[in-house]
Amino acid sequence: MENSDTDLDLVSRTLSGDQGAYRRLVERYRNAVYGLILSYVRDFDQAEDLAQEAFIRGYYRLHTLSDGDRFGGWLRTIAANLCRMKLRDRRMLPLSEDGLEAVTDPLPSPEAVREQEETQQEVWAALERLSRKEQEVVTLYYLEGERVAEVGKFLGISAEAVKARLYRARKTLQKEMVEMAKKTLSQKKLGRKFADQIEIREFSDLARLTDEELQALALETGMALARGLATGDEEAEVFKQRVLAVLPERDRENMEVHLTYSDPARDARRTVVKAAQDLQQSGVIRPAPRSFDKAPPKGPVEVVAFADLLRLTDREIQWVLREVDTKDLATALRGKGNRIRQVADRMQKNVSERVWRFIEIEWEHYKVSAKAIRAAQEGIVRVVWSLQGSGVIRPSKIGPELGERVVVRSFEDWAKLYDREIQYALREIDSRDLAVALMGNGKRMGAVKTRVMRNLSERVGRMIREAQSQFSPGKEDIEACQQKSLETIKQLQVLGMIRPPARKPTHSQYERMMTAAAQKRIERGLHGGRWTPDGISYMTLIPYLGMVMRDEGMDAARAMLNGVQESVLEQGIQLLAEGTDRETLVETLEKQADREIKRIKSKFKMVIDGLAAIQEGQAPREVGHHLAKM
């Protein structure tokens, strides 16, 4: 917690209109409030959402605080009451991962997720053995960087009382569990990004915008903002003066004209709030936190027909819209029926006014057949499946419950896999083998064929059907191809790309599968005697490298990597052979990786400059000379 300004100073400045002062208070108390809430709800995502709500409530009730020096204890009471209310009303809904963020970070393996969840459950179970006061102290102590005085100040108790509660808690918990709790909580601290977020729900929330954000909003909304401020109440008058103060001279004069001649209209406030939320989406205004009230539903969702898009959240629909051509969307929405109209309403809500006008123009001037409408709708459904497979939106309902292990003993057990897992398997299986495998008979083969075909692209699906029309395989051929697919599934389970089987593989089974997968990827990456690993290859190459070094020695490991086009991997083998210590190895390879990144960026810069020169109409000879100079 910063000590440069007292709580009293920051509270006074906030009440005087200093927007940065309350942000300082949020930064000062973010982990204290978060830790207190965490001791109640035992869920990191829910605790973060409720902490945001506690600070929002504190902001709007700040004028009721009689003594600014008591801000921490006053905020603690708000947070605790909020937790009790939410728990009493049983509205504590578990939050799923945010799709917009999931696409920027690599997804952890199922094993890593499961291990993290198990660790957290063990920590919560251990903390359950403590009293309420001891839970609060332990949680705040590790989130606040093990600072006794700060914890005591926030809880309103002495440093000695904090130490006593910590002593009793450590006595109750085993040493290993204390270390586990410390590690888990310290990794989940809230960063500065927490204070940068702002929830815009109603017109009064706009007072929390910075001057730059307010200026951008005023220039965007113009007349609507003037009509919202022309109501004449005291709150509007104060806000109006601030708006005028942040605008450039010419824009301020225009706004004054709007204010003079505009009729008051509270409906205009909704327009302004919607515009502010749109500016949040585009990054002009700070983003909103993951809202507790707007928490996306947890678990899988099944989208089979176009009308099933109604089951998606607005955020998931926005991801779908990014992948869909406007003309295809306009065609798909020409379908008939009440549910299609509901889909159209949801789509209109999630696109800009400009894009929706393009859709209306398509409707006005172009006629389409029922076949074209069906094709457009099916294409959009396939986009949804693709996004489900890549983890951008929730996975399909089809398959067993999330988190369960899965047993795949026969080809028909493909029906137990999620769509995303099927897509991983399809990338590894030869299309000819797959075509033969799908020609088998059995009780669940119909379901398997449907699931597989819906996860193939249209082009590959056509190739499969054409291959099947040409083949007349015997029973042995079909069984052999199905067995190949099962071996692929087992390899992917070992790699963590498909949920593991009910029984963990033995060490020998694991190493046999890993060896087969690594050798397969090396063969796939071969190009004229040299080979290039890809992202997935490292999941198999590195463990395989360890096995080869252990069983056959360093010379065999070098032979295995002979011809690899990967400088970091080559240098790493050399350092291992020299017996380099871990710290030096990591430091050296990180520097090499940085050089490699710069080299790749330089190479692509040449490509971009060359293409740009061609687009400008430069002669090939001039382009070549330009690139040679680079």
Structure description:
The protein is mainly alpha-helical and about 625 residues long. It folds into 5 domains: about 5-195, Rna Polymerase Sigma Factor, Chain: A (Orthogonal Bundle), CATH 1.10.1740; about 205-280, Annexin V, domain 1 (Orthogonal Bundle); about 305-390, Flagellar motor switch protein FliG, alpha-alpha superhelical domain (Annexin V, domain 1, Orthogonal Bundle), CATH 1.10.220; about 410-505, Annexin V, domain 1; about 510-610, no CATH class. The protein is built from 32 helices and 2 strands. A two-stranded antiparallel ribbon has the order 1-2. A hairpin with a 2-residue loop joins strand 1 and strand 2. Helix 3 crosses helix 4 (about 70-90), helix 7 (about 130-145) crosses helix 9 and helix 28 (about 535-550) packs antiparallel against helix 29. The protein starts with 6 loop residues before the first helix and ends with a helix.
